[in-house]
Amino acid sequence: MEAHRRDRRLRLSGRGGRWLLCVPFVLIAAVTVVDVLAPPEVHLGPFLVAAPALAASFAGPRMTAFVGAAAVLAQSVVAVARTSLTDLNHTYQIIALVLLSAMMTFFAYLRERDEARVTRLRAVAQAAQSVVLRPLPHRAGPLHIASVYLAAEEEAQMGGDLYAAARTGRGTRLLIGDARGKGLDAISEASLVLGAFRVTARRERELPELVGQLEAGVVSADDDGGTDREGDDTDGADEAFVTALVLDIPDDEPVVRLVNCGHPPPLLLREGRVITLDASDASPPLGLSDVLSPDVTVETFPFDVGDVLLLYTDGVVEARDHTRAFYPLAERLPAWAGEDPPTLLARLRADLQAYAGGHLGDDAALVAVERLAPEA
Questions:
Q1: What does the pLDDT look like over 284-312, one tens digit per residue?
Q2: Quick one: how far is CA 270 from the chain centroid?
Q3: Model pTM score
Q4: Which of 28, 40, 110, 344 has the fewest CB atoms within 10 Å, counting from its CB?
């Protein structure tokens, strides 16, 4: 709570915040002056309630109560200046203003309490996310890697977006995925997949076997009732699944091998052109092999020195602008050709947030991988 109040004070300490705090007092002064100078049959006192109501929308309960007290004092000044403090009309206006100011102060308290609760929930979510999502290495053999995780702003819940990397004796393996849903259910599924990947990525020689281990982790949790958290799951509608891309990038071959398990295809940035690495035969999402075909197809694509591979979750391409149009990732990407992975992701992140008005509807994860020239 104290951290939340400190953040609020910092937000209101800037020039814009100071001007905002001045507005209720300017309103009180203006209404008071006009009401004193107005004809006897004109009463502007009821407009004073707008001052504590406005303060309650952005200030804390103490400031709202202070503004309300100033409004009551102003109404008393008007009463003395025009008739008397015991005048029946002004007495009722003062009583009504006191009651409404108290109500606005209570609303400000409730709003600040709810904001503090959301802040705590977000802090817990970010802490859990940081435990599950370990930072990716900046270098892995001939690869330069960067990653970024963007949390949705509209909820205090964490999503199930995930990524990981592991070195093998012959190259680097990468994983990016998105568990169904939000909150603890999603992070639980994500942690299962990440744990299975970290354990088996170095052991399994071929991608189909690795994907099979990831599939087994999700299915075993489903069989243990891990997804039946909201009630009786009789029709399978709440069955857990995770979309994922599993990649193998050899050190000594200019290729990338991947298995697409129902995930958005990666984009390859080469000499200013964007190439979509569409899988000709995508596998079902992890956790759905008993519903769909369990066949796993490994696709191979060129990935040479200077190429940049962009992996992402659907929170990126499903971000919308004010017209509800989706973010055109493939169209925007060539603007950052020639940038290294950290710079590319920094500019992409800024562009994505500006496009969505600063509020993403879903969590988003991005991983950029560049193949560097072999060291002499």
A1: 898 886 655 567 889 999 999 999 999 99
A2: 30
A3: 0.69
A4: 40
